[in-house]
Amino acid sequence: MAFKPLASFILSKPTADFLKNVSKVQNVRFLASVGATQSENYEFIKLTTAGEKQNVGVITLNRPKALNALCNDLMKEVSNALDSLEANTGIGAVIITGSEKAFAAGADIKEMQNNTFSHCITGNFLEHWSRVSKNLKPVIAAVNGYALGGGCELAMMCDIIYAGENAKFGQPEILIGTIPGAGGTQRLPRYVGKSKAMEIVLTGAQITAQEAEKMGLVAKVHPVDKLLEESIKLGEKIASNSQLITRLCKESVNTAYETTLAEGLHLEKRLFHSTFATKDRKEGMTAFVEKRAPKFTNE
User: Fold this and answer.
1) What distance in Å separates the CA atoms of residue 298 and residue 279, rounded to the nearest whole number?
2) pTM of the model
3) Which of 214, 213, 208 is nearest to 169 (CA)?
4) 162-185: pLDDT as tens digits
5) Annotated catalytic, 107?
6) Other C-beta atoms lying within 10 Å of the C-beta of residue 177
7) The one catalytic residue among 81, 104, 107, 163
8) Which residue in 77, 173, 213, 236 is the catalytic one?
9) In the annotation, is 263 catalytic?
């Protein structure tokens, strides 16, 4: 975000000093927008807030040596962080991201290598991963680098996926003698269709961010160094609306993936009708008529 003067320009010292100060101010503003860390109690993630109003929660996966492999304790921390952000009325949207090298390169194979069928059944293995998809507030996946196996599944649990230009998606479980177990065979066909999903899960092939965008898996592709910034902007835009109405809208869209068209249309109509019992619906329409910005109270 900092202003970088072109090397071909010859600047006077006062002008150069001014530009340096502008650069510093812009950097400070961006850093302030990311918010202070709240990660003292987390080992495998970082939890921060972002945006001018600090109304966007940011969960950063933080196992760099393991390319953010999704171990059991990391996913428990993600779940706990989501609990915290969901209970925070000042947060209107959530971002889950990783590093430039890897969003998450997959589940932790070493951790599950010696699992048995009975242990998986009695321990309800991977069940707590579904916490991400059940989050009531919108969740944005900001994906740079590898999003493979469990990493791809984690991204698909989110409501919107933004990807950096270097992102790689895939479900390579077939290559190690197993199948996706956290939604890969179920969510992927809903995103990209049966034929493409079959190709991906049966070959373990990786797809680029650009291919993923064409398939409908990714909403937008951004330069690597702009990904988080653009994701925060999206989160801020979502958070500026009524959290109450946003929750109803998210529920309605998600229902489209789980019911028939007739059932989905019926639910949508009822949820639409229900907004007329809210103060925010009245405020939104009144503000529109009066040509002013609405002041939502989430009521």
Assistant:
1) 8
2) 0.85
3) 208
4) 999 999 999 999 999 999 999 999
5) yes
6) 6
7) 107
8) 173
9) no
